[in-house]
Specification:
Length: 137
C-alpha cells in the first residue's frame, strides 16, 4: 500500500476488515529509525494480517531541539520500505487518539512506554491506551 493519504488508509483498512483480516496499527515518531523500531514493527506485524503505521507529523514531534532529524515524508517513506509494514500514513494530530478514531484498526501496538508507571509515561500514552480500550481496540 505504501504511503497513503489518511482518507485512503481509512478506506483500505475498511476493505481489509470487511475481508476478515485483522489490521494492526503502530503509531509514533520513528525519527532516526533503529533496530528497536524494526523489532517492534516486526513483532506487531506477526500478530495481525496487515500492519499500518502512522508517523507523527513534524509539528507534533517533541523530542528536543532540531527534531525531528528527518522530515515526515522521509520517515514515512522509510517505514513504507520495511517488509513488515503494509502501509503508512502521516498523522497530523497531537496523539494517536484521532488516528484510532478515524482508522479503527483491530489492534493497536505500542512499545515499552505503555508499561512504565503512570507517573513516568507521557500523558498522551495513557490517554491513547484508555481510548483504545474504550472502543475495543
Amino acid at each position: 500500500m505504501g504511503v497513503m493519504a489518511f482518507e485512503q488508509a481509512a478506506e483500505q483498512i475498511g476493505r481489509l476488515k470487511e475481508a476478515g483480516m485483522v489490521v494492526g496499527l503502530c503509531h509514533g515518531c520513528f525519527d532516526i529509525l533503529h533496530f528497536g523500531h524494526l523489532r517492534h514493527l516486526a513483532s506487531a506485524a506477526s500478530m495481525c494480517d496487515a500492519l499500518i503505521v502512522s508517523a507523527t507529523a513534524d509539528r507534533y514531534v517533541n523530542k528536543g531541539p532540531e527534531r525531528p532529524i528527518f522530515h515526515e515524508k522521509y520517515r514515512a517513506e522509510m517505514l513504507a520500505g520495511l517488509a513488515c509494514v503494509d502501509g503508512v500514513v502521516i498523522s497530523d494530530f497531537p496523539s494517536a487518539i484521532e488516528v484510532l478514531d478515524s482508522l479503527r484498526p483491530n489492534k493497536f501496538f505500542k512499545g515499552q512506554e505503555y508499561h512504565l508507571p503512570n507517573n513516568a509515561a507521557n500523558p498522551n500514552f495513557l490517554k491513547e491506551k484508555e481510548y483504545a480500550a474504550s472502543v475495543g481496540i
